[in-house]
Write a structure and sequence with these properties.
Layout: H1 18-24, E1 32-37, E2 40-45, H2 50-58, H3 65-78
Antiparallel strand pairs: 1-2
Length: about 80
């Protein structure tokens, strides 16, 4: 496990350090997904399929049909 720090700008923007960018395999204009649960945040590169993103973040946790529908609705509103 490696600890990497970054700060927030006055607009609450976050710069991903090089180590994090390389680990995630992200480049300019890619999107990321945040999963917030119990005051913890996980970050992954957003795949084309939001269900795949939820699956990779869940680490064995099963999402309810309601949670999946709600996430799909939120994702659609962003487009």
């Amino acid at each position: 496990m490696e600890f990497v720090e970054s700060g927030l700008t006055s607009k609450f923007q976050l710069t991903l350090p090089k180590t994090v960018r390389e680990t995630l395999g992200v480049k300019e204009h890619d999107e990321v997904v945040f999963l917030i649960e119990n005051r913890n945040v996980k970050l992954i590169k957003k795949p084309g399929d939001i269900l795949k993103a939820m699956e990779s973040l869940s680490e064995g946790r099963r999402f309810s049909a309601k949670e999946i529908r709600e996430e799909i609705q939120r994702d659609r509103k962003r487009w």
